[in-house]
Description:
341 residues, Beta-Lactamase, 12 strands
Amino acid sequence: MRKAFTPGSNDLLATIEAVHAAGLDAQLWPQVLAAVAETVGGRAATFEVFDKLVGLHREFYSYGVPPVAEIAYFEHFIADNPPWLFMPRQQTGDIGCDYRFIDEKGMNKAPFYAELLTQMDLRYFLSGVLVATADDYACISVQRSARQGHVEQDEIRLMKRLLPHVQQAFDVAQRLKGVCAANKSFEQAFDWIADGVAFVATTGAVIYSNEALRAMVRRNDIVRMRKNAIEFFTVDARTRFDAALGAVQRLQAGEQPVPATMDFPVRRRAPDVPLYIVSVHPLVRTSPDCQAAVCDEAIVFIRDPLKRGNATSYMLREVFGLTETEASVAMALTAGVALPH
């Protein structure tokens, strides 16, 4: 009887550590799959996330097999691939291998085994299902050559030990993608605002700035970015901005800042043009027990009355179907201008 491959405990631990690292950086998956293949006793490995609704892969990483776009099976063999026909019956956490649904005689008749896998010097597989829902299917799979033979119980036990770690890494990766997508949507929402907006640390370092603020910097009018910090051109504006950030720091320390230091006008370089209005407000985070606390960051609004008027007029016309004149009247009313009798 063939002797199963059994790695040392250090090899298994190193593979597990590598798997968790790949959960934080997807670019590591190919080299991690190499470690998984060696640990479990194979010559190739794949990690794939399949969208059942559209019938396409969302993610595919491999070691020892051609890239997904180069494998003929994705064009010609997917409908006749016995493992994929077995997929709908699999559940999260299942361990799969060839003999659980097909024998050697069936393999010899199936084009997937007899043609495609033979061309890549592969024959058998051992897989672990990460997720199996109505919409998604994700699994990690180790492929073996005909010379290595079908997996035995030792390899299956190793896959069972590895699978929970791969599932955790996959979960972390999905959560990180969700956070990144939420942050991206958050940033895109601020790009719709006519005001310049920035999130800054109380040290002055800019954490995020929207397109309107970046446009102000490009116009070189009242503000610039210097060493990743907002810097106003006039001494008065710089002094007031520093005072506002200092007020946020005092508020965080439990003191009450002077409200007047949080909002101030800033002159443009061009004369006889409406002033910019700068507002600095502390950011408040709510803890799980619903306790609010001021954090060491602030949100900065730089309002350009000229740009704001144009943006407001455009939105009134687009949203409410007003004419340009009607939008102008609406803006005048909200500004407190009385209609003539």
